[in-house]
Every structure is written in structure tokens, then in C-alpha cells.
TrEMBL record, chain A:
Pathway connected to this protein: One-carbon metabolism; methanogenesis from CO(2); methyl-coenzyme M from 5,10-methylene-5,6,7,8-tetrahydromethanopterin: step 2/2
Membrane-traversing stretches: 12-37, 49-73, 85-109, 115-141, 177-201, 221-244, 264-285
Keyword entries, A-Z: Cell membrane, Membrane, Methanogenesis, Methyltransferase, One-carbon metabolism, Transferase, Translocase, Transmembrane, Transmembrane helix
Gene: mtrD
GO cellular component: cytoplasm; plasma membrane; vesicle membrane
Protein name per its UniProtKB record: Tetrahydromethanopterin S-methyltransferase subunit D
Organism: Methanorbis rubei
Enzyme Commission number(s) from the entry: 7.2.1.4
Stated family: Belongs to the MtrD family.
Enzyme's top EC category: translocase
Function recorded in the entry: Part of a complex that catalyzes the formation of methyl-coenzyme M and tetrahydromethanopterin from coenzyme M and methyl-tetrahydromethanopterin. This is an energy-conserving, sodium-ion translocating step.
A Pfam family of this chain: MtrD
Subcellular location: Cell membrane
Assembly and interaction partners: The complex is composed of 8 subunits; MtrA, MtrB, MtrC, MtrD, MtrE, MtrF, MtrG and MtrH.
UniProtKB/TrEMBL annotation, chain B:
EC number: 7.2.1.4
Ranges annotated as spanning the membrane: 64-80, 87-111, 131-154, 161-180, 256-276
Membrane protein topology class: Multi-pass membrane protein
Official protein name in the record: Tetrahydromethanopterin S-methyltransferase subunit E
GO CC terms: cytoplasm; plasma membrane; vesicle membrane
Annotated keywords: Cell membrane, Membrane, Methanogenesis, Methyltransferase, One-carbon metabolism, Transferase, Translocase, Transmembrane, Transmembrane helix
Family annotation (Pfam families): MtrE (PF04206)
Organism of derivation: Methanorbis rubei
Catalyzed reaction equations: 5-methyl-5,6,7,8-tetrahydromethanopterin + coenzyme M + 2 Na(+)(in) = 5,6,7,8-tetrahydromethanopterin + methyl-coenzyme M + 2 Na(+)(out)
Record-stated family: Belongs to the MtrE family.
GO molecular function, one term: tetrahydromethanopterin S-methyltransferase activity
């Protein structure tokens, strides 16, 4: 049996309430730790600033985890025209889109919070829009295959029927329009979440450096570098977590695996809590 | 005004560099069989098909290119900090990263192929010698152009990220774009030329890749020759358009409405791409029609 023919055993995709509650409690503990460390003066800015920074990071991570589920990924089977989606890994593609968004968001960061977030989201969406179009061009003009999904009878957006265009012995191929739209939405969420994490960290680092008297030309450069590195790192953490949830391939929002996203969001909330805390401890005042 | 004109020029140049980078990246990964189709190259000997195709994928193109481009950016940045001429610094960085790529390619090919010895797959030393240098040549082009584009973004367009951080962002995006666009053409159209054109590869055909060229056994350099016709340019166009539009919308429209102009321009561009995609999809359905099973020969 090939990897794509294998079905997950038992309740592999089911929501697990006990584990989820533990994860949420852990996340609340991390937020409490940020509050306490701020209160004790280890984080600069008082109790509320570190806490709100961490909350922002967690919200950003949840947005990324949700967005990753929209990205249509087919991995190796897609490269053979055996399943629909983009022929690469979930974590890599989502991170690529998210980082393209982060690039735009970081560029616009000086123009204000709203512009930075919107710029980041659009950057991610744009990257996915171009990539998805070129994927379809490869399939249609390079290999002579129309897009077809094996998961739904009709495209939920255009109403196009799928089954008759699907080659025998495959699960579908190419990117049906619903998958294209899913890819763009995934890029939007990824860019938005990544930029939110970046902006939160950047503001926190700038405030921390100012509080301990690190000023001058190098301080903002250092803050941008640190915030960028940690935002990229957290992006990879969340994308890999979500990739485990997806287990290989997903066609987009119409895929049954999409319904697993709450699990990934809970995991992302917990993981980003501890990651965010570590990112903030880098500039702790000891 | 002058700044905007220079910005547009640099945007076009960065886009062009990215297009070359994407084309070279895809050709490099196809010669080295580093994209997702590598699973078929790895699988073939297990299904009884020994071959002379290089196979160097360990973790896929995006992380590998992130490493190489970031390494080159980091080295170039260090040399620039030491007041070395920027062009020389970028060349130093790209050369060093290319050597790392060569080491990676050699060890990956030997390791992956040796793991298949129990299925009778030999390590071909002539393949190792001829293909590794060709992938290194393509990798140099991809790395050099990407680092140059990152340098332009950093110095002329004043992006806040330092050069190595831009290397992480665009190295990963390069790998992701090339992997997404180029892989299907290499995976399906090149490796499965024994299958019907105009249809996906049936799952039952997995591992049965085409191993013979017009004269003798096919080597990976033939794969580069084949995919440089469509897969490479398509990947180049993909990465070039991403870089171009990402920079263009910001350089030209950011001054409008305190930055919201760039956001609106981005939305418009996304919608235009969506319309083109829908057109391509409908065109394919109209012209190719529903799937018909291949007629069995008597």
C-alpha cells in the first residue's frame, strides 16, 4: 500500500479533550509566568506589557496553525499527478508563504500596527497566489492534465464536477479552484500570524533595550534581527506541528482532514506559549 | 521621485535575478533528484528497477536552499563588514555555499544509494563524478543570484532585515517556489514517460520510472536537459513574479494612504492571478475534456 492509500488508524484525527485541556492550562500558566516575571522586574515594562506580548504571540501562532490547514499540499504523490495539491511538504510551503508575508510585514512595520499586519497577510497571500497559478500552468500546459479533486464530487465554489476529469488509478491531480482559494487564504493567515508575532516581539525588544539603556544605532538593528529570527523559528515550530496533524497531504478547506484544525490550534497555543517565553527571556533584566 | 524610480529599477532587477535563480534551482534539483519525485528514484530499486539516476534529497529543497543561501548571505555580509567590495564578497559567499552544496550532494548520493545495496542498486562512481559538478554549477547560479537580490533589497530598498535574515526568507521561498512548480514536471512528465501523456500516474505504477535514454542508460544530466525546457523556466517565472510583485507593490504604492496603498495593490494582484488561474482551469477542461481510459492494444 502506498503512503497516500493508507488511511489513518482509529481516531487519529479526533479531538482529544483531556490533552487539549492540559495544553490550554499550560498556556495559561505560561501567560501567568510572563505576568509574574514582569511584576518582579525581570521583564521590563511592568506586568501587563510582557503578558500582552505573550498573548499576541499565542494569537499569532493560532492564526498560523489555522492557516496551514488551508494550504493544499500533495507532497510526492502530487509530483506524479497522483493526488491534488502542491508538490512539496506542508511545513515548507506554509513557512515559505509565511516568511514572504513576514518580509512584507517587517517592511511595513514602521507605518503602524494595522498596515504591518495587512501587509504581512497580503505578502503571504500573494506568494501563494503566484505559486498556485504556476502549479496549475505546469499541470495544464506541461503535462496536459486538467485539475480534479478526489475528495469532493463538485467544487464548492465553482460547482464544477470532478470525478470525470480524474485519471484512473489516482486520487486526482492539479489544483481545483477551491484548493487555489484555500492556498491564498492559508498564505493570508500565515503572513498575518507571522507578522503579529514579529511586531509583538519587536515592540517588546525595543522597549526592553530602551529600559536598560541600550540605545544608539545598533539597538533597533539588534531588535529587528532578534524579532525576525524568533518569528521565523516560531513559524517553523507551528508549521511542523500542523504538518503532523495533516499527515502528508491535504487538498484544502474541503478536505476531511481540514476538520482537524482545532487540535493543531490547541497544540500551537501551548507550543508558542513556551517559545514566546523563551524569546522574551533573551532580553530579561537579571 | 528619484528614489521611486531607482526603487522600480531595482525591483525589476531583483525580479529578473529571482527568475534566473528559480530556473537554476529547479534544474539543479532535477539533476540531483532532490525534489519530491526523489521518492520514486529511491523506490525504483526496491521494485526491481535499478537505475543511474542521482538521488540526493535528505530534507527537500526549501530547507537545503535556506541553508545554502543563508550561508552565502552570512559570509558575504561578514566580508562586506570587513570593507571588502560587495561584488567580491557575494562571490566569496556563493562559492563557499556551493562547496557546501557539493559536499552535501556527494554524501547524500552515497548514503542514499548505499542504503539500496540490498536491492542490487550499485553506486556509480562515474555518475557521482559527472553529476555532482553539474549540480554545483547550477547551485552556484541559483545561490549567487538570490544573494544578489537580497543584497539589493537590503542596501537599495532598505529592508530592515540584515542580509543573512533576508537569506533565510528568500532561500526558503526559492526552494518552496521551485519545489512547487518544477516538481510535477520532473516527477510526472520526465520520470513517467512510459505512461500516457495527459493523465496522472496511476498509484500502481509507483517506482516504475523510465531508466533508458535515446542511447543507453539515462543519467541525471539528461533530466536537466529535459526539465530546463519547461519546469525550470516555470519555476523561474514563479519565483521571479513573487519577488517582483512583493517589491513592486511596496515600492510604488506604499507612499499612498500611509501604506494601505500597497495592501490594496496586493489584493488587486491576488485577484488578477485568481482570474488567470480560473481561466487556465476552464481552458484545460474545455480543451482536454473528461478522462478517457487508454485503449488496450490487441
Amino acid at each position: 500500500m502506498s503512503a497516500i492509500a493508507a488511511k489513518p488508524a482509529g481516531n487519529a484525527g479526533a479531538f482529544q479533550p483531556v490533552a487539549s485541556v492540559i495544553a490550554i492550562i499550560l498556556a495559561i500558566v505560561f501567560i501567568g509566568v510572563a505576568y509574574l516575571l514582569g511584576n518582579m522586574g525581570i521583564f521590563s515594562g511592568g506586568a501587563m506589557v510582557p503578558m500582552m506580548t505573550l498573548v499576541g504571540i499565542i494569537v499569532g501562532a493560532a492564526l498560523i496553525a489555522f492557516g496551514v490547514h488551508f494550504v493544499p499540499v500533495g507532497g510526492a504523490p502530487a509530483a506524479m499527478g497522483q493526488s491534488p495539491g502542491i508538490a512539496t511538504g506542508v511545513a515548507m510551503l506554509a513557512t515559505g508563504a509565511g516568511l514572504a508575508g513576514l518580509f512584507g510585514g517587517a517592511w511595513a512595520a514602521s507605518l503602524g500596527f494595522g498596515v504591518a499586519l495587512a501587509g504581512g497577510a497580503i505578502g503571504g497571500g500573494l506568494m501563494m497566489a503566484v505559486t498556485c497559478l504556476m502549479v496549475n500552468i505546469s499541470y495544464v500546459y506541461g503535462m496536459g492534465i486538467p485539475a480534479a479533486s478526489g475528495k469532493v464530487a463538485k467544487d464548492p465554489i465553482t460547482g464544477d464536477s470532478q470525478a470525470e476529469y480524474k485519471s484512473q488509478g489516482t486520487e486526482g491531480h492539479g489544483l481545483p479552484f477551491i484548493s487555489y482559494v484555500g492556498g491564498v487564504i492559508g498564505g493570508l493567515f500565515g503572513g498575518l500570524g507571522g507578522t503579529l508575532i514579529y511586531v509583538q516581539l519587536l515592540n517588546f525588544y525595543n522597549a526592553s533595550f530602551a529600559a536598560v539603556g541600550i540605545v544608539g544605532e545598533d539597538a533597533p538593528v539588534l531588535a529587528v534581527g532578534l524579532a525576525g529570527i524568533f518569528a521565523i523559528g516560531m513559524f517553523l515550530v507551528i508549521a511542523v506541528l500542523s504538518a503532523y496533524n495533516i499527515t502528508g497531504t491535504i487538498e484544502g478547506p474541503h478536505d476531511p482532514k481540514f476538520k482537524r484544525f482545532p487540535r493543531a490550534i490547541v497544540a500551537a497555543i501551548c507550543a508558542s506559549g513556551i517559545c514566546g517565553l523563551v524569546a522574551m527571556l533573551v532580553v530579561a533584566v537579571l | 521621485m528619484q528614489e521611486i524610480i531607482i526603487g522600480i529599477g531595482v525591483t525589476a532587477l531583483a525580479g529578473a535575478l529571482a527568475a534566473v535563480a528559480g530556473a537554476a534551482e529547479d534544474t539543479e534539483s532535477n539533476i540531483g533528484s532532490q525534489g519530491d519525485p526523489n521518492s520514486q528514484v529511491q523506490l525504483a530499486p526496491q521494485m526491481g528497477y535499478t537505475h543511474r539516476i542521482y538521488n540526493k534529497a535528505i530534507s527537500g529543497e526549501p530547507p537545503a536552499y535556506t541553508l545554502w543561501v543563508t550561508l552565502a548571505c552570512g559570509v558575504a555580509w561578514a566580508f562586506i563588514m570587513m570593507n571588502v567590495n560587495a561584488v567580491l564578497a557575494i562571490i566569496f559567499g556563493a562559492v563557499l555555499a556551493t562547496f557546501v552544496q557539493g559536499i552535501y550532494a556527494t554524501t547524500a548520493y552515497l548514503g542514499r544509494t548505499a542504503s539500496l545495496s540490498k536491492f542490487g542498486q550499485p553506486v556509480f562512481i562515474d555518475v557521482l563524478k559527472s553529476v555532482t559538478t553539474v549540480t554545483m554549477g547550477h547551485a552556484f547560479v541559483a545561490i549567487f543570484t538570490t544573494v544578489t537580490a537580497c543584497y539589493l533589497m537590503s542596501t537599495v530598498l532598505h529592508h530592515p532585515f540584515a542580509l543573512p535574515l533576508l537569506g533565510v526568507v528568500w532561500g526558503l521561498a526559492l526552494g518552496a517556489a521551485g519545489s512547487a512548480t518544477g516538481n510535477p514536471y520532473y516527477g510526472k512528465e520526465r520520470q513517467y514517460q512510459n505512461q500516457k501523456f495527459g493523465a496522472g500516474v496511476p498509484i500502481s505504477a509507483s517506482g516504475n520510472i523510465v531508466r533508458y535514454a535515446e542511447a543507453g542508460q539515462r543519467s541525471s544530466i539528461d533530466n536537466g536537459f529535459f526539465t530546463a525546457k519547461l519546469g525550470g523556466p516555470a519555476s523561474g517565472l514563479c519565483f521571479g513574479l513573487i519577488v517582483f510583485f512583493e517589491l513592486w507593490r511596496t515600492v510604488l504604492f506604499e507612499p499612498i494612504a500611509n501604506g494601505w496603498g500597497a495592501v490594496v495593490a496586493g489584493v488587486v494582484i491576488i485577484l488578477i492571478f485568481m482570474i488567470i488561474d480560473r481561466y487556465v482551469e476552464v481552458w484545460a477542461r474545455k480543451n482536454y475534456g473528461p478522462y478517457t481510459a487508454a485503449a488496450t492494444e490487441a
